[in-house]
Structures are given as C-alpha cells and as structure tokens.
Amino acid sequence: MLTRPDRPADPAERVVKTAAEWREVLTSQQYHILRQAGTEPPNGSVYKEFKHQGKGTYHCAGCGALLFSSDHKFDSGCGWPSFYDPANADHVKLRVDRSLGRTRTEVVCAMCDGHLGHVFEGEGFDTPTDLRYCINGGGLIYAPAESGPT
Ligand SMILES: [Zn+2]
Q1: Consecutive 10-residue runs of the chain (150 residues): their mean pLDDT?
Q2: Catalytic positions, please?
Q3: What does the alpha-carbon distance between residue 92 and residue 102 come to, in Å, rounded to a whole number?
Q4: How far is ligand 1, taken at its centre, from the CA of residue 150, in Å?
Q5: pTM to 2 decimals?
Q6: In CATH, which of 2.170.150.20, 2.40.440.10, 3.40.1550.10, 2.40.30.110 is domain 2-147?
C-alpha cells in the first residue's frame, strides 16, 4: 500500500479516464485491483502493513478520494484490510456482483468507479454496524494522521 505523508485532495468531480490513461498513472498492482476488479492475495505484505498502521485516512489510489479512516478499522482476521464503515459514504458506492457464481456486494469508488473490494454483513463481528468492508489495501493510499495538513 502506498503511504503518502500529504493527505490526497478529494477530486472536485468524477474522474473518467481510458484504460491507457489509467495505466499511465497506476502501478500494475493498482491497475489490476482498481480497473480489473482484481483481488490481492490474503495475508500478504499489504495486510501486515495495514495492521501496524496507526491513525490516518485511506484514499483511493486512482483518484485520491477519501474512502476510509483508521477510526473504523477492525481486525476481522480475514486477511484483507477491514472497516465497518466508510469515512465518506458519498465516495463509496455499492453494486451487485454476480461473478464467481454467487451474489456479493461490490464496493466501488464513487468518484472513479475503481474496484475496492466487497462488503459483507451479519457476520457477528462486535462492531457498531456488523458490516465488513473487505478492501484490497493495494488500491488504497494511506495518509498518516500526524503528518496531514491542519
Ligand atoms: Zn477513486
């Protein structure tokens, strides 16, 4: 997961790019997740990084939109970064995903349509929402709170 000392700015409007333009601005891992709905391996280096990150915000690696915050992060043990709520619900869009022969709810960046992961509910986690936003850390940018603008 990319870490940026400066907090990315939210895009002023929806971000639309061609596949070629996205390839220019994203790493191959970011492109695979965000633009091809790829899934990073569970319990990988990104997850280990995530577990050790302190307070901060998580932004879309495609467009910079604020998506999640460490305030809503929890350890689900599933192998991917987990949040029980978005930091800015306007930037997080849900849509039905019928791939892999089952129905899941896909989580997408509302500003650039980048694939982030899936959301699951009713799993019994002791969180205020009982939702698990299961997010690919590779599609996020982490901005530590202490170094952000005041
Ligand atoms: Zn985005």
Answers
A1: 90 97 97 97 94 96 98 96 98 95 96 98 95 98 75
A2: 134
A3: 22
A4: 23
A5: 0.94
A6: 2.170.150.20
